[in-house]
């Protein structure tokens, strides 16, 4: 059985593009315990989520955990604390290129894969009004960097991406699909 260690509706939706045969379980690891300055933060988060669920696995289970961060000028943008923080983040990302890094772990009792995937995202030059409208229209508080690429068709935040679109959604689907073949 494939187990997605996540409560993210986006990760669940993306994994369903690979397989319908999986369940989701919420990791018991508290993300606030890892300092944002920790090297390989996203991978560290994914690994700790994985560790929090391993004791419940059966012999043939495959566990997938993931975490995503946004980085601009070596500063990590996690999930915003509130709308004011979301505005600050989006204002800083405006008209700049940043990195979206997802760390993921695929684990079974026989094998483990740990990887980080990086995508470069360039924002359009956003006015204060565009940012406020976006924050009013979209639930931004559960998104690293206060945005979701899947909303871009309506809001036009993004000028360009270099790398995995799905990675920016928080689940590097193409890479995970390849790595899962090692487990099956």
Explain briefly what this protein structure is.
The protein has 184 residues and is α/β, with parallel strands linked by helices.
Structural class: alpha/beta
What is the CATH class name? Alpha Beta
Computed CA radius of gyration, to the nearest angstrom: 16 Å
Low-pLDDT residue intervals, each spanning 5 or more residues: none
- Secondary-structure element series: EHEHEEHEEHHEHH
Query: What fraction, in percent, of the residue positions are helical?
Result: 25-40%
**Biggest sheet details:** 7 strands, mixed
Ends: how far apart? 10 Å
**What's the number of helices?**
7
The rough form would be described as elongated
How many domains in all?
1
Question: How many beta strands in the DSSP annotation?
Answer: 7
CATH architecture tag:
Alpha-Beta Complex
Taken as a percent bin, the fraction of beta residues is: 25-35%
Average residue pLDDT:
93
Structure description:
With 184 residues, the chain is of the alpha/beta class. The chain has a single domain (2-180), classed as Alpha-Beta Complex (Maf protein), CATH 3.90.950. It is built from seven helices and seven strands, in the order E-H-E-H-E-E-H-E-E-H-H-E-H-H. It has helices at residues 9-15, 41-53, 83-93, 128-137, 152-155, 165-169, 173-180, and strands spanning 2-4, 22-24, 62-72, 75-77, 97-107, 112-123, 158-162. Strands 1, 2, 3, 4, 5, 6 and 7 form a seven-stranded mixed sheet that branches. Helix 3 (83-93) crosses helix 4 (128-137). It is elongated and about 55 Å long. The termini are close together.
């Amino acid at each position: 059985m494939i187990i997605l260690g996540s409560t993210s509706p986006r990760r669940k939706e993306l994994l369903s593009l690979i397989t319908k045969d999986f369940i989701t379980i919420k990791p018991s690891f508290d993300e606030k315990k890892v300092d944002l300055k920790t090297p390989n933060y996203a991978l560290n988060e994914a690994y700790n989520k994985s560790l929090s669920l391993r004791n419940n696995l059966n012999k043939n289970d495959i566990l997938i955990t993931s975490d995503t961060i946004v980085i601009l000028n070596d500063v990590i943008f996690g999930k915003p604390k509130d709308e004011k923080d979301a505005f600050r983040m989006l204002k800083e990302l405006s008209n700049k290129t940043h990195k979206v890094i997802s760390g993921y772990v695929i684990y079974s009792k026989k094998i483990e894969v740990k990887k980080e995937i990086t995508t470069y995202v360039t924002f359009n030059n956003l006015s204060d009004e565009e940012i406020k409208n976006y924050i009013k229209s979209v639930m931004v508080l559960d998104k690293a960097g206060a945005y979701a690429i899947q909303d871009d068709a309506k809001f036009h935040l993004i000028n360009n991406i270099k790398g995995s679109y799905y990675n920016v959604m928080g689940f590097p689907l193409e890479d995970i699909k390849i790595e899962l073949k090692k487990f099956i």
